[in-house]
Structures are given as structure tokens and as C-alpha cells.
Amino acid sequence: MAVLSYNEILSKCIINYNNEPYEVLSAHIFRMQQRKPVNQTKLRHLVTGKVIEISFHQNETVTEADIERMGAIYLFTNKNESWFAEEGNPKNRFSFPADTVHDQVQWLAPNAAVEVLTYEGKPITIKIPVKVDLEVKDAPPSVKGSTVTGGSKIATLSTGARVNVPLFINPGDIVRINTDTGEYTERVEKS
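Below the sequence we write its predicted C-alpha cells.
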């Protein structure tokens, strides 16, 4: 575990803060008038997802969290639990409470590959690809002349997620979704 000084705590780092794993969402080092510099950060707890703001001063250090990554397959969500299996070892199954991973799982079809972050040997959260391709299951027909509203409609994807798509999207089309923003990016040609 590396020890990080206040100015090495940067975005995307995963650190131990109060003996808990946190991901640094943003970091800004600044100096106010005659004072010593501080690093103002936003941290997200990797287990609960809670975001806090912490300022690290020049004399403070933190340790980098000992996070390991494991490949896994998304299986299903049932009774408020999302289940996964380790890649190459289907007997090693584990779950997360559905409310902690819902934002990511809504973009996953069964058997989709994900990356699981583990802390002290226990799975704590998942990382999914930034863009996924999903099939449109249901989309209302477009009405001629309805472009006044911006030319979009709400479609239901194969995973059950609902997203705004352009009027030309029809059921059966494959669309690419940005999982960070939850927005449609493009239609994908079927192969």
C-alpha cells in the first residue's frame, strides 16, 4: 500500500479514509491568501455509495486502498439482490443489494461481463463498460409532425431500462447507451 501525500490524492484514486475504501471523484488544490495549500476533494464510499467532501492539508497523508479486480458475469436480479458469478468459476457466486448497484445493473443483460472490485477479499462494487449495446423491446410509433417536442420518445430496452431515443428508433433496433449518463448515443447496425 502506497502512502499518498495531500497533493497526490487525485481523481480516480482509491484511498483508505477512516479505514474505509473511497474513490476520489474530484480533487482541487488551492491556496487562500497567506494560508498553506489544501486539497479539496469529493470522495465516494465504495460500499455505500455515499459522497462526502473532505479537505486534506499539507501535513496529511492517506494510504492507497488495497483494491483487487476480478472478472465476473452478471446473472440476474431477484428479491432485491443482484447476483454475479466469478468468471471461469461459476460456483463462486455472490450478490449485492439491488439498491446499491441498480444504476449499473439496469444496463446489463444476463451473462454480461463486469469487473468486480474486491476489498480485503470481499466484493464491494462493480464497474461496467462506459457504453453498452442493447435491443429496443418497446418504442411507441412516431407521429408525423411531432418534432416540436425535440424529436425524441421514450423506449424500453431489453433490460427493462427506459431511455430517450430519436423518433426513427423502432422495436428490434440495437442502440448504444452511455452508462455514465444513461443517454442514447447511436443506433448500431445488426451484425
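The helical segments are 98-105.
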